[in-house]
From TrEMBL:
<dbReference type="InterPro" id="IPR000056">
    <property type="entry name" value="Ribul_P_3_epim-like"/>
</dbReference>
<feature type="binding site">
    <location>
        <begin position="195"/>
        <end position="196"/>
    </location>
    <ligand>
        <name>substrate</name>
    </ligand>
</feature>
<dbReference type="GO" id="GO:0005737">
    <property type="term" value="C:cytoplasm"/>
</dbReference>
<comment type="similarity">
    <text>Belongs to the ribulose-phosphate 3-epimerase family.</text>
</comment>
<feature type="binding site">
    <location>
        <begin position="173"/>
        <end position="175"/>
    </location>
    <ligand>
        <name>substrate</name>
    </ligand>
</feature>
<feature type="active site" description="Proton donor">
    <location>
        <position position="173"/>
    </location>
</feature>
<feature type="active site" description="Proton acceptor">
    <location>
        <position position="33"/>
    </location>
</feature>
<protein>
    <recommendedName>
        <fullName>Ribulose-phosphate 3-epimerase</fullName>
        <ecNumber>5.1.3.1</ecNumber>
    </recommendedName>
</protein>
<feature type="binding site">
    <location>
        <position position="173"/>
    </location>
    <ligand>
        <name>a divalent metal cation</name>
    </ligand>
</feature>
<feature type="binding site">
    <location>
        <position position="64"/>
    </location>
    <ligand>
        <name>substrate</name>
    </ligand>
</feature>
<dbReference type="InterPro" id="IPR011060">
    <property type="entry name" value="RibuloseP-bd_barrel"/>
</dbReference>
<dbReference type="GO" id="GO:0004750">
    <property type="term" value="F:D-ribulose-phosphate 3-epimerase activity"/>
</dbReference>
<dbReference type="GO" id="GO:0006098">
    <property type="term" value="P:pentose-phosphate shunt"/>
</dbReference>
<keyword id="KW-0119">Carbohydrate metabolism</keyword>
<feature type="binding site">
    <location>
        <position position="33"/>
    </location>
    <ligand>
        <name>a divalent metal cation</name>
    </ligand>
</feature>
<comment type="pathway">
    <text>Carbohydrate degradation.</text>
</comment>
<keyword id="KW-0413">Isomerase</keyword>
Length: 217
């Protein structure tokens, strides 16, 4: 499984060090949580941080937008070095337009679902997206407990993917540790975000390796 360390739980005073560590540990993605204090009740950081760290990593930059008016952030994110841009289905009345815009700027288009949003809302856009991110906690904060009800949702999404012979990634985000990652993988997830599990440990590099190991990589 691909691992996406979330820098939300990294040491902001030593961001470059943590990012270089995560690449060295073999993490394929770097997950960057952009929060505006409106769509979610928390603030994080914006594209200047992305731009600042881009020269120090060859990882795939996976930008998770938790903002209102996501269409305003697509071009700045792409210019700052995003590879994948994830937009919440719930954050715009024009999800298709925003996903089109992401592709137009040369990035991979990812749609994100809150825990309360069923996968059925994606029926008519699944063939268009590069990835679906299933939130396994309520968005806004690191360190929350994995919601076990989300396993059935991942299974249903994976079933649709197989039936329709589609090839989007299924990413999971929130409460991922060495147990929950295996449950998500069994259900069909292909990418896992992990923040506090990795960065709250005294040996974060080892934690990334453990996540790869328990998922067979
Ligand atoms: C939460 C963010 C997550 C967060 C995950 O809204 O989307 O990416 O950093 O943190 P953990 O892995 O600690 O649940
Ligand atoms: Zn996230």
């Amino acid at each position: 499984m691909k691992i996406a360390p979330s820098i939300l739980s990294a040491d902001f005073a030593n961001l470059r060090k943590d990012i270089e560590m995560s690449e060295k540990a073999g993490a394929e993605y770097l997950h960057i949580d952009i929060m505006d204090g409106h769509f979610v009740p928390n603030l994080s950081f914006g594209e200047p941080i992305l731009k600042a760290v881009r020269p120090y990593s060859n990882q795939i930059f996976d930008c998770h937008l938790m903002v209102e008016n996501p269409e305003d952030y697509i071009v700045p994110m792409a210019e700052a070095g995003a590879d994948i841009i994830g937009v919440h289905y719930e954050s715009t009345p024009h999800i298709y337009r925003v996903l089109q815009k992401i592709k137009e700027v040369g990035c991979k288009a990812e749609v994100v679902l809150n825990p309360g949003t069923p996968i059925e809302v994606l029926t008519d856009i699944l063939a268009f997206v590069d990835a679906v991110l299933v939130m396994t906690v309520n968005p806004g904060f690191g360190g929350q407990k994995f919601l076990p009800n989300m396993i059935g949702k991942i299974q249903r999404l994976s079933q649709v993917k197989t039936e329709q012979k589609l090839d989007f990634e299924i990413e999971v985000d929130g409460g991922i540790n060495e147990q929950t990652i295996q449950e998500c993988q069994k259900a069909g997830a292909t990418v896992a975000v992990a923040g506090s599990y990795i960065f709250n440990d005294s040996n974060p590099m080892n934690k990334i390796k453990v996540l790869h190991k328990v998922t067979g990589d």
